[in-house]
Amino acid sequence: MSDDDGKVRFALEVAGGGAENADGLLAAAKNAALAVDGVSAVAAVATAHSAGAAPAPSPAGGHANPLGVRKKPQIEQAAEAMAGVKHVIAIASGKGGVGKSTVAANLAVAMAAAGYKTGLLDADIYGPSLPTLFGLKDKARLRDGKIMPVEAHGVRAMSIGMLVDPDQALAWRGPMVMGALKQLMSDVDWGTLDVMLVDTPPGTGDAHLSLIQSKRLTGAVIVSTPQEMALADVRRGVALFRKTETPILGVIENMAWLETPDGARHYVFGKGGAARVAQELDAPFLGAVPLYPALREASDAGTPLAGSDHPAVKTFAQIADKIIAAIQGATGSTAE
Ligand code: ADP
Fold first, then answer.
1. Which of 108, 103, 105, 165 is nearest to 130 (CA)?
2. Domain ranges of the chain
3. What was the pLDDT predicted at 170?
4. What is the pTM of this model?
5. Is the alpha carbon torsion for 121, 127, 131, 133 positive or negative?
6. How many CA within 13 A on the CB side of residue 197?
């Protein structure tokens, strides 16, 4: 996949047998991509697919590899620390500002309210919003060398924004993004969870590739506004997840319409665009969330609407139900 500014990102699928050569192959593929006219930078990861058999364990220490066993990528090793987490779901969007973080936070609260042990990992390195959405002011606390997630609104949550100054993260490049994600996976005491939602940065970049490489994703949920500009990126996101065999659990249309007091619906960003794209891509449509001024106010105030009789609460509960059902469909297992 390539951006307008000539940056190319890709995931290299390496079959089980050739996995020990993954580094060499990756370097060669990167060089080949860099040699193409108009390409200014390349970011790539190798995802090794074992042909049926479980991957061989890495040798202790993870360096020498005389037997040719596959060395696990560091992010995959880091993700093993989350052994108590049953399902990890990436919440993704093509563009920023479509309400992905708001939707992720409210879905997490809805899942917790429905009785699922729920976590929310705010991995939006470039604009972490969990501290605002959940009204978290404190920095992360340590216990026994582990970072303690905060319990807020029934959800176990941690944000990259609680570990580093968000202004610093703006200039981060691929390896630093992966490093931060690794830390959020392996250094945080997530304990046991039925579902963990990961709020990813907008677009399809290093954080997504790292998550895919971690081999922990049960699936991805895409959030979009109905407008065509945002939808082009949805197609790109869906293509990335599909290529890496990450199930698309569904598409959510946010800011679908604004209802005025007279009951009229105004389709500010167009009508039904995300539902159409979901159908076109053969991905489940999970539902529409209208524009609710109260939702914006609650988000800014750090107090999710949960527990109130606001219609948004029911909408998020219904979408959360559908995601749980989609997890069961994708894995054949229950989220409970
Ligand atoms: P993203 O994570 O996609 O960048 P945010 O979740 O930060 O987007 O949302 C952007 C802004 O839109 C925030 O001010 C948020 O409160 C507001 N917002 C998101 N969804 C809705 C909605 N359905 N109704 C009203 N405001 C919303």
1. 105
2. 1-51, 76-331
3. 64
4. 0.80
5. negative
6. 31
Per the CB < 8 A criterion, the answer to whether 47 and 10 are in contact is no
Task: Name the one residue in this structure whose structure tokens are 């890495």.
Answer: 58
**Burial class, 49, CB count within 10 angstroms (exposed 0-12 / middle 13-18 / buried 19+):** middle
Q: Is 47 in the pocket of ligand 1 (CB under 6 A)?
A: no
Q: How far apart are CA 232 and CA 227, in angstroms?
A: 9
- CATH fold, domain 76-331, is Rossmann fold (3.40.50)
Residue 37 contacts by C-beta under 8 Å, 6 or more apart in sequence?
none
At 166-218, the pLDDT tens digits run 677 666 777 888 888 999 999 999 999 999 999 999 988 889 999 999 999 99
Cα dihedral sign, 147-300-306-107: negative
Q: Tell me the best of 98, 102, 227 to mutate to test the pocket of ligand 1, counting ligand atoms within 8 Å of each CB and taking the most.
A: 102
Report the distance separating Cα 222 and Cα 283, nearest Å. 10
Residue identified by tokens 């065509």 is: 228
What separation in Å is there between the alpha carbon of 101 and the centre of ligand 1? 7
